[in-house]
Amino acid sequence: METCINLNDLNKWFGSFQVLDSINLSISTAEKVVICGPSGSGKSTLIRCVNALEPFQSGSVNVCGISVEKNGRNATDIQRRVGMVFQQFNLFPHLSVLKNCTLAPCRVLGLSDDEAGAKAMHYLERVRIPEQASKYPADLSGGQQQRVAIARALTMEPELMLFDEPTSALDPEVVTEVLDTMVDLAETGMTMICVTHEMGFAKQVADRVVFMDEGKIIEIATPEKFFSEPTHERTQFFLSRVLG
Amino acid sequence: MIEFLSTLIGPFHAKMLAVLLSATQWTVYLSLTAFIGGGLIGLIFTLLRITPINWIRKFAVAYIWTFQSVPLLMLLFLTGLGIPIFYQVNVPPWMAATVSLTLFTSAYMSEVWRGALQSIDVGQWEAGRALGLGFVKNLRYVISPQALKIATPPTVGFMVQVIKGTSLAYIIDFNDLMRWGKKIGNSQIDGAEPFIVFPLVALIYFLLCFPLTLLSRRLEQSLNIDSNKLMLTINKGG
Amino acid sequence: MIDLRFYEIWREQIFVEKLINGIGTSILLMILGGIIGFIFGLALATARGSKIRFLRIPSATFIESVRNTPLIVQLFFVCFGLPMIFEYRWPFFASALLALCLNFSAYYAEIIRAGFDNVEYGQSEAARALGLGKNDILAYIVLPQALAKVYPSLVSQFVFLFLTTGIISEVGVEDLTWAGRYIADRNFRDFEVFIVLTIAYALLSVMFRGVLTATGQLVFPWYREK
Ligand SMILES: Nc1ncnc2c1ncn2[C@@H]1O[C@H](COP(=O)(O)OP(=O)(O)O)[C@@H](O)[C@H]1O
Ligand SMILES: [Mg+2]
Q1: Burial (CB count <10 Å: 0-12, 13-18, 19+), residue A219
Q2: What processes does the entry annotate via GO biological process terms (chain C) (predicted)?
Q3: Residue B11 lies in a domain
Q4: Which of A136, A241, B205, C16, by CA, is between 20 and 30 Å from B170?
């Protein structure tokens, strides 16, 4: 199978504090990986390194056949190929939903307004909110905003999608609408890395589950194995906390 | 001192600098008087502005609005020229300047302080009330200590506005730094051209103001205050 | 005792003409000074926050110099000092306008910079994650949000600056204050003249605030105060 992401002995420090400790991970095209672990374990930092939002000190990061430079010099080459969805949505409040989606395709890919608009509408339909296209983000509910954020990333037609706790900032009753959208997306064959504690989602969608703690990958397993027979004590402890 | 300066920059420029510096003391006196006087009146109006009694509050709002909307220059003209002519009284320039700058300062100070009070979370008032504190005690023990902290940097910063404001008083013949600067600058004497004198005058004002600007900024950082938030609160009211 | 004779102000046609002309000049100066000062201010704010020392230090020096000295000194320097340095006299209106623009720009720059600092980090991060370049992020993401945030402060500053502009009458620019002084010098009713001027300034500042606030709602319809 074709490799989409390859992390080789990745190390990163914030000052003297090591956030990522010899990370090795290879993800193939169309694979779905869920990353979980306690807060502060470096999950966000890891996926931010994947799309060159963070510089790193040693090791190598290969994404879509491009080697990410440590200092982020070729960052935009990576970022236009990788979509990302944030915990806090980070929609642009001053742009309508449609403009949120079309800005990057127009400016980065050089599409015309019409082309970008058509594409954006296509993806807004995919996330089931085409009727909100002309509204401003502040007029939408949290769940709707997060679905717009997904559509915004998809309008760039990325080769893979990263999700950083996309449902953590949502009211419990709208979590499902976002998860359903992500499940739909998974079914289209998109390569996905999701940092999430939604274990139901992991069971349903993930090919592999990665457990991180203190900057290290502790355990990688299929969801069945991960949930039924976790090998590490820390994984067992974490699961008992999350699954209640 | 003057002799030393003479050897350094020549007798003419030493004399000029001495004149300007001696005029600067009047700028300083006027600034201090206006700041203290304006601060006291401003404090009174800040308190009136938040009393529970409706008409007093309205009166305070009207006062603050009025003296914030009146240009300082007009206050100077009114007190220094208008009133003396109209009432046939003699108003010395220092008095007109002091009154004008005090009124000007009081209005802006109470606006800043009101902003500081308003930026305190309503929850703090409610918490105080829940503890059984009345309005005055609540204000005294719960609200003002917090507001004071927020208000200090912009208060120090406003001192800069007051100093700059005093430069207008020359227009009613107050003998301050600006008046002498203008006199010398217009004197057509070689070595006292406007492009020498006015930068020098500017430098003296700068040396008065900039330390206060820095102090205000330092306080802001050490007290960890978001001045932008306060700025927006103040502007909403104005 | 109180014998107010406001009619003395519009007694002569030339007085009325000077007043109307003065109001027009004051408004024109504010519009020009406001727009040019804003553009300078934007450039200054960008330079001030730049990583390049060659841009950052001169702009910081300029901003601090202007903010810590009185407008009147700046005005005299620009109107009397600069023409001697350049050995070229241009009209006082132009000099006064230049002084106002420079003055406004320093105050605006400081406010705009506060706006830049206050745009959430997540915004530029999300833009980076979409592959947008540095300049695009500044122009399309950070700038509009920064301006919306500080717009009320810019309006207040504008009105505050308006109230300080009367001093340009000192260099012979025939603004509203100049018109008042012209009339008072001839009818000797200083008190009434300056009362009327005071009211005119208050009304104009209310008008400016109203127009600018309404403009803000048109330009930033999406903005919600937090
Ligand atoms: N910009 C930063 N500077 C310094 N430390 C940081 C920074 N960002 C994150 N960290 C630290 O790195 C660790 C990992 O953070 P993060 O990747 O956000 O963890 P997670 O997403 O798993 O909760 C945390 O201890 C956090 O405090
Ligand atoms: Mg995280």
Answers
A1: buried
A2: amino acid transport
A3: no
A4: C16
d(CA A97, ligand 2 centre) in Å: 25
A and B make contact (3+ CB pairs below 8 Å): no
Residue A7 is classified by DSSP as E
- Computed over its alpha carbons, how large is the radius of gyration of chain C? 21
- Domain for residue B58, yes or no? yes
Q: Which residue ranges form the domains of chain C, and what is each CATH number?
A: 23-217 (1.10.3720.10)
**Does residue B83 lie in a domain region?**
yes
Give the pTM: 0.88
Strand order across the beta sheet in which A191-195 lies:
A82-85, A160-164, A191-195, A32-36, A208-213, A216-221
Positions of chain A with pLDDT lower than 50, given as ranges: none
Q: Is C130 in Cβ contact with A108 (below 8 Å)?
A: yes
What is the residue with the minimal CA distance to atom 21 of ligand 1? A44
A94 lies within 8 A of chain C by CB: yes
Query: Which range marks the domain in which residue B201 is found?
Result: 25-236
Residue showing tokens 């745009």: C119
CA atoms within 13 A on the CB side of C23: 17
Among residues B134, B113, B120, which one has the least CA distance to residue B41? B113
**B16 occurs within a structural domain:** no
Q: Six-digit token pair at A120?
A: 């954006």
Task: Report angle CA A164, A153, A182 to the nearest 5 degrees.
Answer: 60
Note whether A179 and A154 are within 8 A (CB).
Answer: no
**Per-residue pLDDT at C104 exceeds 70:** yes
CA quadruple A219, A222, A226, A231: dihedral positive or negative? Answer: negative
Q: Using a CB–CB cutoff of 8 Å, tell me whether C121 touches chain A.
A: no
Q: Does C216 touch chain A (CB under 8 A)?
A: no
Q: Tens of pLDDT along B104-151?
A: 999 999 999 998 888 887 888 888 888 888 888 888 888 888 888 889
Residue A77 is predicted with a pLDDT of 92
Judged against a pLDDT cut of 80, whether residue B184 lies above it is answered with: yes
Whether A94 contacts C222, CB under 8 Å:
yes
What pLDDT does residue B43 have? 94
- Report how far residue C192's alpha carbon sits from residue B82's, in angstroms, rounded to the nearest whole number: 7
**Could you give the 3-state DSSP secondary structure of residue A195?**
strand
Structure-token pair, residue A181: 């959208």
**Is the pLDDT score of B2 beyond 70?**
no
Q: Go through chain B and tell me how many residues it has.
A: 238
Asked if C123's CB is within 8 angstroms of A90's CB, the reply is yes
CATH code for position B38: 1.10.3720.10
Residue closest to C110 by CA, chosen among C57, C52, C150, C152: C150
| Number of structural domains found in chain B | 1
Model confidence at B68: pLDDT above 60: yes
CB contact under 8 A, B202 and C74: yes
Would you say A150 and A85 are in contact if contact means Cβ atoms under 8 Å apart?
A: yes
Contact A63, A5 (CB under 8 A): yes
Q: Please tell me which residue, B143 or C25, carries the higher pLDDT value.
A: C25
CA of C129 to the centre of ligand 2 (A): 16
Beta partners for A211? A36, A219
Q: What is the DSSP code (8-state) at residue A105?
A: H
**Beta-carbon separation of B71 and C170 below 8 A:** no
Angle between helices B93-118 and B11-49 (to 10 degrees): 50
Distances (CA, A) of B51 to B32, B232, C49, C52, C152: 29, 23, 43, 51, 27
Q: Which residues in chain B touch residue C64, judged by CB atoms under 8 angstroms apart?
A: 210, 213
Mutate-to-test residue for ligand 1 from A10, A11, A14, highest number of ligand atoms within 8 A of CB? A14
| Cβ atoms of A120 and A101 closer than 8 Å | yes
Residue pair A220/A48 in contact (Cβ under 8 Å)? The answer is no
Measured in whole angstroms, how far is the alpha carbon of residue C53 from the centre of its chain? 28
Q: Which residues of C touch B119 (CB under 8 A)?
A: none
